[in-house]
């Protein structure tokens, strides 16, 4: 684990003057307009703001799911604009992890095989993939539940499995869109604590969009989008 303060670590991901607009029936909607962001190993960055402010567009652009109209999305020093489609797909699979409000677990697989699945898809031997999955489930407090299928798990347990799965390939960046939005308050706290602890241990940079301002106490920084640009959020409002 890096002993440098987070602020002194080299960024894993950089968004540089990123702009994104959409053409609607009412004209051009400028969602991102020169947005800048650096994400560093082990750093947890919160993204807050009302619906429609551009949070999902920012996450999709950072996650290489959408192309910016202009600007640079850089991962480990490489400009994603210079990647071919295959390299872009491999970068998403190997360097980026995704967690959503709904877990999207495979119902026919138990917890350990849900977590191991991304590794096996990438050609990792099943026994090695399962060992990695077992380690992650343990870090999420789910050692006793690894052989249970999603239908046998609580909502919070299912979401912890989804987080473990997102970390299976040892991504450099984890992008989370309302990861606890479907959970009750007490479950939300325990799930987010698991995410926070594992991100620190794994030295993953985490970008989390959330409406839950109570979760911002876990964040190293909290940002919001204003006029298409990222700025420090005013949480006193």
Task: Give the CATH H-level superfamily.
Answer: P-loop containing nucleotide triphosphate hydrolases
Shape, principal axes of CA atoms: globular
Helix content percent band = 25-40%
If classified by CATH, what would the architecture be? Answer: 3-Layer(aba) Sandwich
CATH topology: Rossmann fold
Description:
Residues 139-158 are annotated as: Disordered. One of its GO terms (molecular function) is ATP binding. Keywords: ATP-binding, Nucleotide-binding, Transport. 31% of the residues lie in helices and 26% in strands. The protein is of the alpha/beta class and 237 residues long. The protein has one domain: P-loop containing nucleotide triphosphate hydrolases (Rossmann fold, 3-Layer(aba) Sandwich), CATH 3.40.50. A six-stranded mixed sheet has the order 6-7-8-3-9-10. A four-stranded antiparallel sheet has the order 2-1-4-5, with helices on one face. The termini are far apart. 38% of the residues are buried.
List keywords for this structure.
ABC_transpr_LolD-like, four-stranded antiparallel beta sheet, Rossmann fold, 6 helices, globular, 237 residues, alpha/beta
Short synopsis of the structure:
This protein has six helices and ten strands.
Q: How is the topology of this model organized?
A:
Layout: E1 13-24, E2 27-39, E3 44-48, H1 55-62, E4 70-75, E5 78-79, H2 85-95, E6 96-99, H3 111-121, H4 126-139, H5 155-166, E7 173-177, H6 185-202, E8 205-209, E9 221-226, E10 229-232
Helix pairs in contact: 3-4, 3-5, 5-6
């Amino acid at each position: 684990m890096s002993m440098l303060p987070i602020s002194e670590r080299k960024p894993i991901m950089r968004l540089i003057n990123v702009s994104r607009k959409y053409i609607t029936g009412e004209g051009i909607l400028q969602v991102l307009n020169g947005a800048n962001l650096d994400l560093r190993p082990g750093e947890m960055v919160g993204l807050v703001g009302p619906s429609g402010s551009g949070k999902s567009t920012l996450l999709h652009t950072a996650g290489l799911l959408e192309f910016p109209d202009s600007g640079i999305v850089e991962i480990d020093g490489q400009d994603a604009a210079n990647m071919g489609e295959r390299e872009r797909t491999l970068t998403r699979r190997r360097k980026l992890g995704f967690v959503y409000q709904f877990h999207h677990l495979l119902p026919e697989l138990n917890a350990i095989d849900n977590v191991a699945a991304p590794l096996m898809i990438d050609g990792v031997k099943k026994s090695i993939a399962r060992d990695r999955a077992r380690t992650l489930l343990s870090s999420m407090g789910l050692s006793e539940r690894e052989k249970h299928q999603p239908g046998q798990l609580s909502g919070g347990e299912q979401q912890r499995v989804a987080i473990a799965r997102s970390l299976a390939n040892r991504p450099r960046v984890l992008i989370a869109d309302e990861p606890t939005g479907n959970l009750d308050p007490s479950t939300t706290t325990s799930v987010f604590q698991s995410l926070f602890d594992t991100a620190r241990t794994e030295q993953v940079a985490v970008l989390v969009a959330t409406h839950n301002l109570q979760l911002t106490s876990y964040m190293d920084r909290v940002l919001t989008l204003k006029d298409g640009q990222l700025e420090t959020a005013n949480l006193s409002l």
